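Most newcomers find our protein records easier to grasp once they have seen one. Read left to right, the backbone structure tokens trace the chain's path through space. Nothing more is needed to start thinking about how sequence determines fold. An example says more than a description, so a record of this kind follows:
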Amino acid sequence: MSDSKFIRGTLIVTLGTFFIKFLGMIYVFPFYQLVGTNGGTLYTYGYVPYTIFLSIATAGVPLAVSKFVSKYNALGDYETSRRMFRSGMKLMIVMGVLSFVTLYTTAPLFAKTMLSKAEGPNSVEEVATIIRLVSFALLVVPAASLIRGFFQGHQSMGPTTISQIIEQIIRIAVLLGGSYVVIKVLDGTVAMAIGVSTFAAFISALGALAVLIWYWVKRKHHLDTLLVNQTVQPANVSTPQLFKELFAYALPYVVVGLTIPLYQQIDTLTFNKAMAAAGQSKIAESALGIFTMWTHKLIMIPVSLATAFSLTLVPAITKSFTEQNQTVLHRQIGQTFQLNIFLTLPAVVGISVLSYPLYAAFYGADKLGGEILMWYAPVALFFALFSITGAILQGINQQRQAIIGLGIGIVLKLIGNLVLIRYFGAIGGVLATGIGFLASVWYTNMQIRKHANFSFTLVYKRTFQVAILTLVMAVAAKGTLSVLALVWDVESRWLAIATVGLTAIVGAAVYMTLAIQTGVMKRIFGEEFLAKFKAKFGRKLKIGTKGA
């Protein structure tokens, strides 16, 4: 795979994933107006256990199938890839049913544990109902995810991207429409509206599955042609042996996929108690909702870039690793880190600079919300980097190291929550998350250096260059924000939206101009990709030509 094709494929999925996350961001504004801060907390109570059970239900199989299929396709053995797909689909259906039944029946236990003795507006019965309604999605999502993994293994990212976009559109339509009808038309409670909102996950999953089945029918002829024209002898392995290899790949996926849900589960189990110990029990649930739901939605936008990288990264690196092409492998790893830093670092810094007006634009002015967002945004960079390092380790068959890295982070997160929240309140939870992810990233980077014989020298150099550009961007954005604050109230809802828009335009213009004129963009993306980009979008873009 050429550098240009690798970057182009990655950016296509990145744009698709970014659009999905963008949809997931804009719906939050009207949703917040309907259900409020405590409604967001209730939504989080339901979604965190669901996400954990979903990771267990899929057991990392869809992404492991992506790696498995990529490996055997590289060897020309399409029959073994298809065997794994058939067996994996049966497994996903069974696991989906079992996980649904388990979560549905244990919902009251989860509700009692999360609420504890916190002084809040949500009852155990309401939380249990929310968990049960969202659990229905477990019947569909695992099977849909497996089909996505199969297509990704064939280096085909379109079905994944399109199905996820359709899924997101349906979910948002049902979530907002249902919540509006319950609250505004039927005069129902916020708990009833959240119930409809969580059940939207099941309806949207059905829509995504329908799209994926359509893609399967459309492409089955091509996939069958690969089988007919296969020239190598299929691998002589039994189904149990295939599953043994698959689960060797899958375990790290399920563990790494559980990273953010596990961190959030630690928050739901310890946050309220720690806040009570700090004498802030009355605002505990409200602060938890701001932390785990409302600000989290905003900071996950740049993290979606890393998620997209992971989708394309594992099959590509697995192929290079299987073919023992060290030159291509090192180049792919280096480009992935550089692209991630180039796109994510300015995004998280920009969110942090604009934290107060940004929170006001989406949810209304709130000092605590703006403060949490300001501290939480930079942590998103570590989210993104851990997604990348975990994917790289999986691609080079060092899955165990990703698990160890996660374990280190989880332990530090738990200790950090118990200690830091008592002293710093809600910000302590943010700091604990940052410390945990930073430790995980440090450990996994060291393992990549060791097992892939990869030098981070160039990555560090590019990171420094991007950091300088980001610093200049931040100064420009902060200056613009200060000027606007003299003209109008930057935390008034509509003026906050205008403030965020104008400041973001200035910041992005400064950053991209500097990236182009200094040659940083050219050195990261490569001449071949930028030449094609320039030819397609016109020659007005002047790409910098300075050296490395």
